[in-house]
């Protein structure tokens, strides 16, 4: 069985947990651990599956997702209810 480089431990908060987005409407965006793990894993694979960069992959994935969310908010592509 292959070791999971990105375990889903929902009890732990990422080191940059304060890097959430406060939107003008008061909503706060934090990517789910499952989404971050998926993106971090793809980064790991795309960079040659080298060991020892798990934290960097996680933080990079989280930052990318927050930045993408910020772009959609600027352009108004978020929840239109």
Describe the fold and architecture.
- There is one protein chain.
- With 81 residues, the protein is mainly alpha-helical.
- The chain has a domain at 30-74.
- It is 43% helix and 5% strand.
- The chain contains 2 helices and 2 strands, in the order E-E-H-H.
- It has helices at 33-46, 54-74; strands at residues 21-22, 28-29.
- The protein has a two-stranded antiparallel ribbon.
- A hairpin with a 5-residue loop joins strand 1 (21-22) and strand 2 (28-29).
- The longest helix has 21 residues, at 54-74.
- The protein starts with 20 loop residues before the first strand and ends in a 7-residue tail after the last helix.
Name the overall outline.
elongated
The main β sheet shows up as: 2 strands, antiparallel
Please work out how many helical segments DSSP would assign: 2
Q: Rg from C-alpha positions?
A: 14 Å
Record field, number of beta strands = 2
Strand content: under 5%
- Series of H and E elements: EEHH
Gap between N and C termini, in Å?
45 Å
Q: Helix proportion of residues, in percent?
A: 40-55%
Mean pLDDT: 75
Structural class estimated from helices and strands: mainly alpha
């Amino acid at each position: 069985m292959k070791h999971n480089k990105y375990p889903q431990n929902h009890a732990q908060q990422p080191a940059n947990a304060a890097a959430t987005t406060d939107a003008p409407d008061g909503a706060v965006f934090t990517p789910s651990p499952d989404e971050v793990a998926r993106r971090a894993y793809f980064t790991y694979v795309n960079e040659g599956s080298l060991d020892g960069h798990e934290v960097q992959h996680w933080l990079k994935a989280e930052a990318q997702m927050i930045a993408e969310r910020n772009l959609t908010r600027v352009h108004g592509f978020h929840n239109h209810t």
